[in-house]
Amino acid sequence: MAINPIKVTQNIRESYVRYLTSTFGLRDTNLRNLFHQEVEKFWFTNGPILEATPPFTKGCYLKDL
Question: CB atoms < 10 A from the CB of 55, how many?
């Protein structure tokens, strides 16, 4: 099963937004709405960051070098 990095990034962001908005249960409705708006605007990640690392070439031992 292939991992979709864009979907994973969205899921992480949504989970973090849900965490922040549920952790800070502000009583003032106006302040709570402003907080939710600001949290939704902010992007916590710059990703997804992908790195392609080719495998090492096999064939000899260190002592043979």
Answer: 5
Structure tokens that stand for 40 in this block:
């939704």
Distance CA 29, CA 49 (A): 37
The pLDDT of residue 46: 66
Please state, in angstroms and rounded to a whole number, the distance separating the CA atoms of residues 16 and 58.
Answer: 42
Question: Among candidates 49, 51, 50, 18, which has minimal Cα distance to 36?
Answer: 18
Spatial contact of 46 and 9, defined as CB atoms under 8 Å apart: no
Tens of pLDDT, residue by residue over 3-23, are 887 888 888 888 888 888 888
**Number of other residues whose CB lies within 10 A of the CB of residue 23:** 7
- pLDDT of 49 above 70: no
